[in-house]
Amino acid sequence: MGSRRPDSYSTMAAGDVPEAVVLMNNVTETRAFQRVVTVAAAQCFPSGRIQFWHPGKRTGSVQQGQVLVYLGPNAADFAKAFGDLGYVCSAGPGPPGRGRRPPTSARRGSPR
Question: Which of 21, 64, 70, 110 has a Cα-to-Cα distance from 6 of 20 to 30 A?
Answer without folding.
Answer: 64
